[in-house]
Design goal:
The protein is an alpha/beta fold. 26% of the residues lie in helices and 26% in strands. It has 22 helices and 26 strands. The protein has an eleven-stranded mixed sheet, with helices on both faces. Strands 13, 14, 15, 16, 17, 18, 19, 22, 23, 25 and 26 form an eleven-stranded mixed sheet that branches. A two-stranded antiparallel ribbon has the order 8-24. Helix 9 crosses helix 10. It is globular.
Length: 677
């Protein structure tokens, strides 16, 4: 069924959601809908709960082993008298850098009696796509999709018999200390908080962890350290390689997201605890810590934008550019060391798309103890596809089911939920399968060719994507700003900027300053599932340059829809073969860029230079008559910009693709069927 976009009355929506499920792509394989699991999870989460009220303990101190005091709000199930119940309960820990104050404000809003019942159907059905702004609709659906409650506090979860602990990460919110941004000491806090929670009188010793983005990442970091009390985690839009995912994808600064994110967290951590001020209990250690480090990482950001040459890189920036530095190594996750049941939710256009499926694949538990859902979302529009007709249950309902199974031992069927649930681009429907990539994919080279495809009249260059290398030709392209109107502009800014559909769902404006290479139409539905690699024979007029590649679905009417993207700075093209993957013919399927100054290779101007680019994994189907397209750009503003010294070396000069049969350029793409090319 096509993803729901229409307007329906609230009761109709509720009925359809309860009846909804997931379309199975495996012959003979039961989907969740076959057992009515999604409807069951929604009914359990939204129905009457065991306890009528919630009791909150404010600013509970938790002392870490180094003496730093973290502050937590503890939400208890309560009886009709409003007092916490006496029985110990399983406990859910959420460690957030966005302050528990924000979580509480969101919780207070969502807990207004009757408000959710009123807002959910309204927000689900507000549809701005007729006006060309479907991204606005998706932003509103984070509430009925369950993300708002998994980000803050889920009172239905608490009233069903869980205690929830929301903790300010050290150096943020009301907690003492210096914000480390996933540093080693911060990571030690996770197991210590889990152990603390397990030992409290209101806990039965069984701990789960929940949360979004940062709070999804620290779940994995905590789980890989194996605290005994931790029994299950539910990471939402997590990543496990922060440099390559978001801070410096392809060796370029993630300017679309990082500055505003640093500003948000650093600004929020400076808000004082006004209750403690009014009661004469102000935490002066907190104040001293904030004075000592008011703007974490802003010095690094400023250095990245202002340092003119590589030789002048200052000490504060150098660790970011060293793959073996303690900072960089602390930002590399070890999901293969996670040994507790793990439910992973991500999206095809999220900031962490590259590593979210890798996390699922690496987690070392039996298949019934790990699940993956990949939605059609940006980072900020998470859960907008959840709870829709023919789709998975909302995130909060799935989270409740996950914890009920692994913390309470309730046989609710979540272990039988399909291993992976994927929003399939191209078919525009939810599908299920046994793995990602889907089974049976065969990698195939598609060569960039200079012959016109006749399908991109508005592009700077209209080339073809063919099965054999063609004639020699040099194609030139200049850095430009048309990528301001692109899906990657939306992705790189986390979806916070609601771009019109003419930009985010059609690449033709961006392609007016790019190189396009388009295949013949496919003759049957053709699945593409997995990571993609681009192998480009390039020539630069300077010692450095930047390349970004998108992979698109081109409809018969000419609409060009970006499915996925990859990028790299030319001088940072070195690949670590020990961490890369290849197809049977030896071509890369996922080259792993080193991204460190020690392996930097300045380009020799005018000489051919091979660049291998890792393109984020994707899943979609080309419908009959549709074509596969590769777009090549020499810039990608505002998603990323090169570090200032590398930008200076590039001079923003013209860049070239050298089409040469003896040194061809291609993409290596995983296909499920013969496309008929």
């Amino acid at each position: 069924m096509i993803k729901h976009r229409g307007r329906f009355a609230a009761l109709v929506v509720a009925a359809v959601v309860l009846a909804g499920g997931v379309v199975s792509t495996q012959v003979g394989q039961a989907s969740p809908n076959a057992e009515g699991l999604d409807a069951q999870f929604v009914a359990a989460h939204n129905g009457p709960q065991q306890y009528p009220k919630v009791f909150i303990e404010w600013d509970v101190p938790i002392t870490m082993s180094d003496g730093t005091v973290l502050k937590a709000n503890v939400y208890h199930p309560a009886g009709a008298d409003g007092q916490p119940i006496a029985e110990p309960t399983p406990t859910i820990v959420n460690m957030t850098p966005y302050t528990k104050l924000v979580s509480n404000v969101a919780d207070s809003t969502l807990s207004v009696p009757g408000l959710s019942e009123l807002l959910d159907p309204v927000l689900r059905n507000l549809d701005f796509s007729p006006f060309g702004f479907s991204s606005l609709s998706d932003m509103l659906r984070i509430v009925p999709g369950g993300a708002a409650r998994t980000f803050s506090v889920d009172r239905n979860l608490i009233r069903s018999g869980y205690t929830q602990v929301v903790v300010d990460v050290r150096g943020t919110g009301f907690s003492q200390g210096t914000w480390q941004v996933f540093g080693e000491r911060e990571q030690l806090d996770g197991p210590e908080v889990v152990d603390w929670a397990a030992k409290q009188g209101w806990s039965n010793g069984k701990i789960g962890m929940s949360g979004v983005s940062y709070s999804g990442i620290n779940q994995l970091q905590t789980a890989q350290r194996h605290p005994e009390a931790l029994k299950a985690i539910f990471p939402i839009v997590p990543g496990s390689d922060l440099i390559r995912d978001v801070a410096a994808p392809g060796g370029n600064l993630g300017i679309g997201f990082i500055p505003m994110w640093l500003l948000a967290v650093n600004g929020a951590k400076l808000l004082p605890d006004m209750v403690s001020v009014l009661t004469g209990k102000f935490d002066w250690v907190w104040m001293a810590d904030r004075v000592r480090d008011p703007f974490t990482f802003f010095n690094v950001l400023i250095a990245a934008l202002s340092t003119p040459t590589v030789d002048q890189i200052p000490p504060e920036l150098a660790p970011i550019l060293d793959d073996d530095s303690p900072l960089r190594t602390s930002w590399i996750g070890r999901p293969d060391q996670v040994e507790v049941p793990t439910f992973v939710y991500g999206g095809w256009h999220d900031l962490f798309t590259h590593t979210t499926p890798q996390i699922y694949n690496a987690v070392d538990v039996p298949a019934e103890q790990k699940k993956l859902v990949m939605d059609d979302i940006y980072h900020i529009t998470l859960s907008s596809g959840m709870g829709q007709p023919a789709g998975p249950a909302p995130l909060d309902a799935l989270q409740r089911a996950w914890f009920d199974k692994w913390l309470k031992g309730i046989d609710n069927g979540i272990d039988r939920y399909d291993p992976v649930t994927l929003w399939q681009q191209g078919s525009e429907q939810w599908t299920s399968d046994v793995s990602f990539p889907r089974p049976g994919m065969q990698y195939r080279r598609m060569y960039l060719d200079g012959a016109s495809s006749g399908t991109a009249p508005g592009a700077l260059f209209d080339g073809s994507l063919v099965t054999e290398p063609g004639a020699a030709q040099r194609i030139s392209v200049d850095p430009g700003l048309t990528t301001l109107c692109s899906r990657d502009a939306a992705r790189g800014t986390a979806g916070l900027v609601p771009l019109p559909d003419m930009c985010s769902k059609d690449a033709r404006i961006a392609e007016s300053a790019g190189l396009t290479f388009t295949s013949a139409p496919v003759t049957q539905p053709t699945t593409i599932s997995g990571s993609i690699a681009a192998h480009l024979n390039t020539v630069l007029d300077a010692t450095d340059g930047y390349w970004t590649v998108t992979v698109n679905d081109v409809a018969p009417d000419g609409r060009s829809t970006v499915w996925t993207q990859g990028q790299v700075m030319a001088s940072l093209r070195a690949v670590d073969d020990s961490k890369s993957t290849r197809s049977p013919n030896g071509d890369y399927t996922e080259p792993f860029p080193v991204l460190t100054l020690d392996t930097r290779q300045p380009v020799v101007p005018g000489e051919p230079t091979t660049v291998d680019i890792s393109i984020r994994g994707t899943d979609g189907v080309l419908q009959p008559g549709h074509r596969l397209r590769v777009d090549v750009f020499p810039s990608n503003f505002p998603s990323v910009i090169p570090l200032r010294p590398l930008l200076n070396e590039s001079g923003l000069r013209t860049q070239h693709i050298e089409l040469d049969p003896s040194r061809p350029s291609w993409i290596n793409v995983p296909l499920g069927e013969d496309p008929g090319w």
